[in-house]
Design brief:
The chain has about 375 residues and is of the alpha/beta class. The protein is built from eleven helices and 14 strands. It is about 35% helix and about 15% strand. The structure holds pyridoxal-5'-phosphate (PLP). Pyridoxal-5'-phosphate binds next to α3 and α4.
């Protein structure tokens, strides 16, 4: 095996090293320093929001956005069942209950048509997730939210740079969160960002992330806060990544194009879509194996691993996980169930070459035929 093809590797080909060295040379390595401020300013400019608030990761970003919106015990928050577990866990951290909604069969995002039925007097808000980089259909969701007085948080962890009707995702809900984990569109190693246009919400989130300390009175803590801060070193990496963000996004889209060319005519698969009026950033190029059982899908993953190709199964739907199983009956989520058992993400690192994608696709078809005909 000459080379192992990873699903998503960070690419640090800009000023990352230079800026990190600057932190070390100047000893600004903790959560103060000029890169933090610069990264937040430039991130806000990129998303076109008034505020961008850095924090330690995407999960703490979700927790802060929920706390900032006043979520607590006895509240219900509507979320997609098909998401990464952090979306559900952040709701649970607040003592609130996640209420799951099934996915759309084409975009794999939360199905707007199924939301209204899940609203009760306890419902406080909706978290939408732009899954694998394809924007959620926001208009009908904002309409429902306005009708019932709910907030909308966008979980844009996988979708930095994606656009919905000409607007960047992360600028449409009352607030949004981004993940800067090593495998996301851009990275700070571990890191998160919250964007909003709401001044009051931004102040509240800043207070919560910094131990709840009054900005004008040292060691005076009017509320119980958290230490959810990002370090200047992380922000330094983030500044360098942001300088090249258009390139990082273009690579994801280039790779998706290569996969479409190779796999389009292969009718054993369902490929991701690109709906009208949106820009999909294809965080991970992800497909469904149409007639596969979960066991067969897993055999394909194993077979590709043996050939030096890493693939990832889709997330198990939230309603299937032990902490959340009791909340719903699994039969309510036919689409999420199908995604969980037939889905697979292919290598999507920005530095993949056309030859590598060709090799991956050839191997994929071969392994798939072997598994499905045994
Ligand atoms: C990655 C991810 C998160 C969590 O981000 P971390 O930075 O890993 O904490 C949250 N939601 C979704 C949809 C994600 O993919």
């Amino acid at each position: 095996m000459d080379k192992y093809h990873h699903v998503a590797q960070p690419i640090l080909n800009g000023n990352e090293k230079k800026y990190v060295m600057d932190c070390l040379d100047t000893t600004w390595i903790s959560s103060n320093g000029s890169y933090i401020h610069r990264f937040e300013q430039e991130f806000a400019q990129f998303i076109h929001t008034k505020h961008a608030i850095s924090c330690s990761n995407g999960t703490t970003a979700l927790h802060l956005a929920l706390l900032g919106n006043g979520v607590g015990e006895n509240d219900e928050i509507i979320i997609p069942s098909f998401t990464f577990v952090a979306t559900a866990n952040a709701v649970a951290y607040c003592g609130a209950t996640p209420v799951f909604v099934d996915a759309e069969s084409d975009t794999w995002n939360i199905n707007p048509l199924l939301i209204e039925d899940k609203i009760t007097p306890q419902t406080k808000g909706i978290i939408v997730v732009h899954i694998y980089g394809h924007p959620v259909d926001m208009d009908p969701i904002i309409e429902i939210a306005n009708k019932y007085g709910l907030f909308v948080i966008e979980d844009a962890a996988e979708a930095t740079g994606a656009e919905y009707k000409g607007r960047k995702v992360g600028s449409i809900g009352n607030s949004a969160i981004f993940s800067l984990f090593g495998n996301k569109i851009i990275t700070t190693g571990e890191g998160g960002m919250i964007t909003t246009n709401d001044d009051v919400l931004a102040q509240k989130i800043k207070l919560l992330k910094g131990q709840g300390m009054d900005p004008n009175r040292r060691y005076w803590h009017p509320i119980i806060g958290y230490n959810y801060r990002m370090t200047n070193i992380q922000a330094a990496i983030g500044c360098a990544q942001l300088e090249n963000i258009d390139w990082h996004i273009e690579q994801r889209i280039r790779i998706a194009g290569l996969y479409y060319n190779q796999l389009r005519s292969f009718d054993a698969l369902t490929l991701p879509v690109q709906k009208d009026e949106v820009k999909n950033v294809y965080w991970l190029f992800s497909v469904l194996i149409n007639d596969a059982t979960e066991g067969q899908r897993n055999e394909v993953i194993e077979g590709l691993h043996m050939l030096g190709i890493e693939t990832r199964p889709f997330f198990y739907p939230m309603h299937a996980l032990p902490p959340y199983q009791h909340l719903h009956s699994a039969s309510e989520f036919p689409v999420a169930n199908r995604l969980g058992s037939q889905g697979l993400s292919l290598p999507s690192s920005g530095n993949l070459t056309a030859e590598e994608v060709q090799f991956i696709c050839k191997s994929f078809k071969q392994v798939l035929l072997d598994v499905m005909h045994n």
